[in-house]
Design goal:
The chain is of the alpha/beta class. It has helices spanning 22-38, 55-70, 82-91, 103-108, and strands spanning 2-8, 11-20, 43-53, 75-78, 98-100. The protein is globular.
Amino acid sequence: MEIKTKKIGKHTLVHLNGRLDITHSDEVEAKLADDVQNGDGDIIINLELISYISSSGIRIFVGMVRELDKQGRKLKLCCITPPVKKVFDVVELLDLFEVFETEQEAVNSLSK
């Protein structure tokens, strides 16, 4: 699993690459925890290069939404691939997130 983060003002853009499954979920969660706990802005996660997501991967995002919501912040997902979208549809959780077709749309939605 490859995780790249980039700051956009006070916000964070995260690119994930690989399979987000039980094998990598702890690594991803630990890597994102600092941005969730200590960041100021919203977090965008680009899922364009995620080929598979398991329930443990979805659990990370649900936990992030809950924690960010307490702080008045948002988790935004973009570039969701069809196989990953299918998993979100099955568990009926996609409505929990702000979802954007493109990374640029997600970035444009950020408050200054």
